[in-house]
Amino acid sequence: MAERGLRSWVEVSRSRLAANFRAVRELVGPAVEVMPVVKADAYRHGAVEVSRVLEAEGARWLAVSSVEEGVALRQAGIQARILVMAGLLPSEREALLEFALTPALHSLDEVAALDRLGASRNTRLPYHLKIDTGLGRLGARALASHIVEAVGAARNAELEGLMTHFASAAFYDTEQTAEQIANFEKIHHSLSRAGLAPHYRHLAATIPIAYGRRESWGNMVRPGHAIYGYVSPVRGPAPPRQLNVKPVLTWKATVLEVKDLPAGTPVGYGAMFRTRRPTRMAVLAVGYADGLPHRLSNRGHVIAAGRKAPILGAISMDLTSIDATDCPELRPGDPVTLIGEECGEKIDAQQIARTAGTISYAVLCGISVRVRRIYV
Ligand SMILES: *Cc1c(COP(=O)(O)O)cnc(C)c1O
Question: Which of 132, 165, 207 to probe ligand 1 with, by most ligand atoms within 8 A of CB?
Answer without folding.
Answer: 165
